[in-house]
Amino acid sequence: MVKFISILSLFILFQSDVIEEVSWNENYKLTWSDFRGVPNNQTDAVAITASGITFSYSIKKTTNKVHGFRTLVKAHFYPEHSWCKKEMVDSHILKHEQLHFDITELHARLFRQQITKLKPNLDLDNQLNQLHQSINEQLSLMQNSYDEETNHSINTEAQIKWQESIAKQLKALEKFKSKS
């Protein structure tokens, strides 16, 4: 019996059946034209990046034994739910928003790394789902810390430290990077 579960994790809920997404790729950097959502003029924010991790898996098992499993983990950016106030943005803010997407990729890599440590067992469904929930909680905490410490890109020293730190962490987990 093959069991397949697909789980989509995002920071926001989407009502649409079709969600446009851009998969993280080391050779592609976001541009302001990727931010196609309607800006929220009720906030001081000048840009919002909607990104998240998609996760699916299949488990091959019989009644009392798991024979193997496969997973798919991807970091995505959602253009229709990301927005910017075009008259207020610049390249510095774009780098800040790109780093939000890079932080999502970092957590996709951490997730893949943790999955490699799992062994087939009858509780694998729960282990994968708990791991997914945990990685999303860690992702959310890091995204919030990033915004707090950089004051949403205003603190340029902190912004540079974050860029260097995330680049270093991505490099350390390079063997778990998203495939193009």
Describe this structure in words.
- With 180 residues, the chain is α+β, with helices and mostly antiparallel strands.
- The chain has 3 helices and 6 strands.
- Strand 4 (51-62) and strand 5 (65-77) form a beta hairpin.
- Helix 1 packs antiparallel against helix 2 and helix 1 (91-115) runs parallel beside helix 3 (156-172).
- The radius of gyration is 18 Å and the shape is elongated.
- The two termini are 30 Å apart.
Listing every helix as H and every strand as E from the N terminus to the C terminus, the arrangement reads: EEEEEEHHH
Unreliable parts? 1-16
Q: Name the shape in a single word.
A: elongated
How much strand content do the residues show?
15-25%
Helix proportion: 25-40%
* Average pLDDT over all residues: 90
Structural class: alpha+beta
Q: How much is the radius of gyration in Å?
A: 18 Å
**Largest sheet, order of strands side by side?**
1-4-5-2
User: CA-to-CA gap between the ends?
Assistant: 30 Å
Strand count = 6
Précis, in short:
Helices cover 38% and strands 22% of the residues. The chain has three helices and six strands, in the order ββββββααα.
What secondary-structure arrangement, pairings included, does this model have?
Blueprint: E1 2-10, E2 22-23, E3 47-48, E4 51-62, E5 65-77, E6 83-84, H1 91-115, H2 124-150, H3 156-172
Antiparallel strand pairs: 1-4, 2-5, 3-6, 4-5
Helix pairs in contact: 1-2, 1-3
